[in-house]
Design goal:
This protein is an alpha+beta fold and 306 residues long. The protein contains 12 helices and 9 strands. The relative contact order is 0.12.
Length: 306
């Protein structure tokens, strides 16, 4: 994490920020703050004479986020905000302030009903990006499509010194991928970390940010993290305290309309995808310095419990 606090990096970032603000007709009015620092990214808050904007820098493996965000935003009908400015070489970007987080709104409203709109809108974004798979891969999105997943899973297990011996082997994952692929839902962009800290309400509609973990995969893999990992825990963070069916229906309805498929059939697809989605999340989100998160995701694949 120290790389993001190095004076040389901070000075270079501030120079770039001021140049981009000038091009946008904005002026910085105070000191840049750095409220978010992780091993893989940093975010800085920049006060301006209009409103605050946000600077984000990612590690090299996620530097594609800015150009991916620009593409996805163009397909999103306002549900994914484009960067105000970005540098394709470094991946640095400036983002408009997106307003309150869904997490904070949920805490005030004591309801998860807003997720229905988020999930439906997000599904429409995924459908709109179905023809962009080659472009997304060319921009650098990780390839977690069904034909790649068994091999990536096998490599992950080999690299773990203490993998749970009860985990299914790569051949079982291959069988599950074949079953899922047989339903004919096209692969597309998949956020892979869609939770209530990534959704904002600043424009009056729910917008999805932070696409740094996104990949190209089966779209329904989203449901692993979002439904099982987040929504099922309810308002008070109690396991299995929220009925998932209304949320699942909200997500699947755009797919039912687009593909002319029955919702009950799509629920069957979703159940299979939610299981395999944890394999995708384990593979795509694996960090050698954080094996605990990988083991938790593989445990979810094994038995649906963290």
């Amino acid at each position: 994490m120290e790389r993001w606090r190095e004076p040389a990096f901070v000075a270079e970032a501030q120079t770039w920020i001021d140049e981009q603000l000038a091009a946008l007709g904005l002026t910085r009015t105070g000191e840049v703050e750095q409220p978010h620092v992780t091993a893989w990214s940093t975010v800085m808050r920049v006060p301006t004479d209009s409103s605050a904007v946000w600077f984000k820098a990612n590690e090299e493996a996620m530097a594609h986020e800015a150009v991916v965000l620009e593409l996805v935003a163009g397909r999103s009908d306002g549900r994914v905000p484009p960067p105000l400015a970005h540098d394709p070489r470094t991946g640095w970007m400036l983002l408009a302030d997106a307003g309150p987080r869904l997490r904070d709104v949920i805490a005030d409203e004591r309801s998860l009903e807003r997720w229905h709109d988020v999930l439906a809108a997000y599904a429409r974004v995924q459908i709109a990006c179905e023809d962009d798979v080659d472009a997304l891969l060319a921009l650098g999105l990780p390839d977690c499509r069904l034909h790649t997943l068994p091999g990536s899973y096998a490599a992950l297990l080999v690299g773990l010194t203490d993998a749970d011996p009860r985990l299914p082997g790569p051949e079982e994952v291959r069988d599950l991928c074949d079953r899922l692929g047989a339903f004919g839902i096209r692969e597309t962009v998949q956020h892979d970390d869609l939770h209530d800290g990534q959704v904002f309400l600043g424009t009056g509609v729910h917008q999805v940010l932070d696409w740094g973990d996104a990949c190209v995969s089966h779209p329904f893999f989203t449901l692993a993290v979002t439904l099982e990992g987040v929504i099922s825990w309810g308002v008070d963070d109690e396991e299995d305290s929220e009925d998932l069916e209304p949320h699942l229906t909200a997500y699947l309805s755009p797919y039912a309309d687009h593909y002319g498929r029955d919702l009950d059939e799509l629920r069957e697809v979703a159940r299979l995808a939610m299981r395999l989605g944890w394999v995708c999340r384990a593979v795509n989100g694996h960090l050698p310095q954080d094996p605990g998160s990988t083991h938790t995701r593989l445990k979810m694949f094994l038995d649906g419990k963290p």
